[in-house]
Amino acid sequence: MPGVAGGCAATPGTSMRRRHLTRMEQDTPKRVLIVGGGFGGIYAAVELDRLLKRDPSVEVTVVNRDNFFLFTPMLHEVAASDLDITHIVNPVRKLVRKVGFFDGDVVDVDLEGREVVVAHGADGHTHRLGYDHLVVALGSITNFFALPGLEERALTMKSLGDAIALRNRLIALLEEADTECCADIRGRLLTFVVAGGGFAGVETIAGINDFVRDALRYYPNLSEDMIRMVLVHPGEVILPELSESLGRYAERKLAARNVEIRAATKVAAVTDDTVTLTDGTVLDASTVIWTAGTTPNPLLGTLPCGKERGRIRVDANLAVPGWPGVWALGDCALVPVGDTGAFHPPTAQHAIRQGKCLARNVVAEIRGRKKRPFAFRTIGQLASLGRRTGVAQIFGINFSGFVAWWLWRTIYLAKLPRFEKKLRVALDWTLDVLFSKDLVKLTTRGETIVRPPRSASAVPTEPVSLHA
Question: Domain 28-65+104-142+295-367 classified CATH 3.50.50.60?
């Protein structure tokens, strides 16, 4: 047939169908799916929301088990009753306007089928969400290292629920220890062991130490000498992320507030009443707070992409090699530092910038533009030691005392998303200067109705409504 070379002739109908399919492909939005709502995932969503707010050709959806973003650097202040529990969380739907949100648990990721299985609802039913671009930001979970009794009994400090549970435990133990019937076990009830001398452990023990000791004035049967705070750290100096001099300064400040530092020691085992250390010491303690280890999300182990130490290997653009359209960042990714063979640390400040870089690269990929590699150097790190003292290392310069504490509050307040939350936290901090810390346990129990015992001769009565 004329006009045909090496194949069948295209009929007019065939040409029309091809043009129609091409238009459909152009009209079908590109689907970007972000799994995980930590620093990396949320900041990627915020940046995509900014870049694509007038582009209907791209649909972005965030999947997370919580419908809020938790600002974890302030978590210990919730546990220590310095901040209201809702003031360090932001609803995802208020952070992004054009980005969709799905409240559910990721139970499976099918890279070959380009689908993610998500469970949600009271019955845990599942949905299969397709994608053109997948952003893996599943973060990490607590690693208990299979130590005897630890996982069943330890409190952790990774979620908002963890902070509330710790706060409730502190108050409950104070209430119990104040009673005469518990006089013989007050030492155990009022001994608190924090495992891990990094930022989370140091800030946690500093906060709860201030909280418990400040609360003693309201418990007439308790005194300062009954309180025992123990910080267990495997290294020689706490806060190894900072300089040795700042670590030593932090140790002196905590020791001055009656916090025991057990350096070069680890937790070996935990029971209901004791904590055994690797040096053979057995502490009579009802509470152990574990901040000494994390491990990548176990769901990553099911993925067929390249991994190392449980984390996904990505290239300099944050893309997963061999899997077009798949990206990873934050705690669950190994992000290379140029060609040095080193990797960026899994910190919040890196995850924030990775999120922004990844979002720009996803948009560049969709629009056929050049992607840019991730490049960032740590600006600094800060830790609060309570009582208006802290330590900080910014651009290689060390700060300690009140100046470091002021820097901690100023910088993190500036980083906290949304003006409303900044204002609420600032008000909380102001009121904390004027008033004592709250001692209310936050429970979710319903109303308890106490009914009188019913005798055999009692006359049946109609039930009385409590909500007339």
Answer: yes
Whose structure tokens read 């359209």? 325
- Which residues are CB-contacts of 385 (< 8 A; sequence separation ≥ 6)? 202, 203, 206, 250, 253, 254, 391, 405
Rounded average pLDDT over 424-452: 84
Selection from 31, 29, 91, 39 nearest residue 352 by Cα: 39
- Return d(Cα 177, Cα 187) in angstroms, integer: 9
pLDDT digits (tens, 9 = 90+) for 404-436: 999 999 999 999 999 999 999 999 999 998 999
Which residue do the tokens 């409730």 mark? 168
**For 232-281, how does the pLDDT look when each residue is reduced to its tens digit (9 = 90+)?**
999 999 999 999 999 999 999 999 999 999 999 999 999 999 999 999 99
CATH assignment of 150-292+379-434?
3.50.50.100
Q: What is the pLDDT of residue 454?
A: 62
- pLDDT tens digits, residue range 306-334? 999 899 999 999 999 999 999 999 999 99
For the entire predicted model, the pTM comes to 0.88
Q: What are phi and psi for residue 353, nearest 5 degrees?
A: -75, -30
Say if residues 251 and 261 touch (Cβ distance below 8 Å).
Answer: yes
Average pLDDT taken over every residue of the chain = 91
Domain map of the chain by residue range? 28-65+104-142+295-367, 150-292+379-434
Cα separation of 231 and 386, whole Å? 15
**Whose CA is closest to 361, among 328, 323, 322?**
328
Which amino acid appears at position 93 of this protein?
R
CA pair distance 194, 206, nearest whole angstrom: 10
What strands, in cross-sheet order, belong to the sheet with 228-232? Answer: 155-156, 287-290, 191-195, 228-232, 259-262
